[in-house]
Each structure stands twice: as C-alpha cells, then as structure tokens.
Amino acid sequence: MMKVVAKQLRDLYVNLPSFTANQAELADWEDDFTRFSINITPSEGLFAKQTYSFEFQLPSNYPDNSPAIVCKNRIYHPNINEDGTVCISILDEWDKASCDLQSAVQGVLFLLYNYDLGNGWTLPGSPESDKEFEENKHKIDNGEFDEELGDWEGDDEDVDMEVKVNPQDLLAKLMKLLYPTASDGKLASNIQGQIRVGSGYQAKLPECSDGSKETDDNSWVSREQIRWTPGAISDSDVLVYLQAARSMAALVGMCDPATSLSEQDRCQAASQDCTTVNALDILHGCDYDKGEALQKLVKRPLPTSVEIKWGEEESKRFAKGFKQIGKNFYRMREEFFPNKKVVRNIRVRIDLEGDSL
Q1: Of 87, 99, 267, 286, which residue is the catalytic one?
Q2: Residues in the active site (predicted)?
Q3: Percent of the chain beyond pLDDT 70?
Q4: End-to-end Cα, the chain, rounded Å
Q5: Could you tell me the pTM of the whole model?
C-alpha cells in the first residue's frame, strides 16, 4: 500500500498546480501518508475566492477502497454534509484501476463548481431551486441570517489553514519509500535533481568498439538505406506525380467518412511535407514506376504518422475546455469540438496560469 500511496502523492504534489489551474495546494500531511490536507480556492463560481480545507483520510486497504474526504470549514453546500463529509460519485463508484488521489481532488474541485440540490442533504432554508440556493449562499456570505437559515455562520478559527508542507522534506520521504536502497546497500538519494554517483546508479554499457574488426569494404550497405536515386526519373514526371498524390490525399479528406480526422484536417494534412515524403518513398519503393506508385497511394495517400497542428482559435478552445472539464476528451469534443471526430493524443502545451498556449 505505502508504495502506491507514495507514488500517487508524489504525482499529486507535482501535478497539482497544473491540473487545478493553481486553485489547490497541498497544505499538510502525516508522516505515514494516511492523511493529508488540500486547500482549495476556486477562481470562479459561487464559491470563488473562498478557501476551503479538505482532509483526505486513506483506509488501510487503499487503493482497493476510496479515501474519506471531509471539509474542515463550515460550508453551505448541498453535497457536503453538516459534519463536513463530502458526497461525490467517484467515492461511491471507486475503481482502483482508473481512480487515484488526483482524480479524487478533481472530484472535490468539480463539486465546488457544480452542486446538485436533488442529490444531497436538506440544507437550512430548504432551497428547492438553484436561485433559492444562491440567494441563501449570498445571505450567508454577507452575514444576513433569517429564521429559516438560523445562525449559519460557522466558527472557522479552529481550522488550521496554514500550509505546512516543506517540498524538500516531503519529496525526500516519498523518494525513500519509492526507492529505499541502491544496489550497493546505501540509501538512495532523496533530493530531487541531485546527481547520483555510485555503482547502484550506473548503467552497464557494452564493450566499446572502434570498428576495426570490420574488414568488409561493403559493410556500410547493411547499415544504410538508399531513399532516393538521382536521375532515375525526370523532374517533370516527379512534379506531375506529386500533384496527383496531393490531389488524392485531399480527396480522401473530403470523401472518406471512416477516417478519424475531420475533412478540414485531412485536407490540411494533404499539403504537409510528410505527405510529399510518403509519396516519394512509395515511388522509390516501386522503382520509379509512376503507375504502380499511384495504385499504392490509392490505398494509403496519407502517412499514418501525420500530425495535425491546431490554429490559435482551436488551441484557445482546447485550453478553456481543459480548465472546465479536465481530461474528459469525449465530453470536450461534444461541447467544444462538435465538428471533430476525436479530441485526444493532442500535442499542445497549455499555460493554465497565463491563460495562453
């Protein structure tokens, strides 16, 4: 259990600023890692700019069973009980194969943006609509209490919100759990980024060879591959062939409904250099027979490794969707990219703090 917890807690600590857009931070933790606290400050929504401390208690059989999550502050929320118990679906449907500490924190953050009046406890004031709930929440924030709400104002003075985590101390203890000893019996280095020296950290390399044992003058043939033979075909024939190849690739983008790329993306891919290289490789493999090469291009006009680069507008939409939805790419496609067939395996760098790409 401890190695699983140590790995997940290390990943959580490292990735917390990025996947929460700097809305959460690790505040405290026990030495045995069975309990830790996360401070969350939503940047938008009904609970914006208010910091809440959530305590995560891990059971002895974690990750088989879900952690217990308690809000240490008094909070007017239909899905956080009066005693602070957090009620989210991920805890009831916990599956260790797909759930971890990071997904649990994401669930809590999601709860502060999306409450469910129909699936929670009966709040003071008994709000029956979102409007009534929001009105009660504003009254509480402004210190306005009536007979139905009562004196809801909680005493949070006893709640310790101080961030006590020392990054080096935390990572050192986690590294000791993950890598307790080196092969030479010494403790593994526990400071992230330190150069590790010793037999336990050295790779075993094969014997160095200067190539003097090779006597065959043609030995290079087995190591190198001819990709193009100059003069085997005229330049004019090559230009005509490439025009046909690009037209064929563009036609696939407009007419092939089975492909995982959109028509716009396939047409864009048809003009990329990798499409040209793919056509030239096939021509060389067919011994510069244009007819045979074009027949093969009909079956595969685009290389399988073609990379589609998004424009600025699409990248901004992806960043917005990632902030709101996270890694639920199916939902992101439905809400932000209805014209694309897939939104995954995307190579894009997102600066969530700067709100830019």
Answers
A1: 87
A2: 87
A3: 68
A4: 38
A5: 0.49
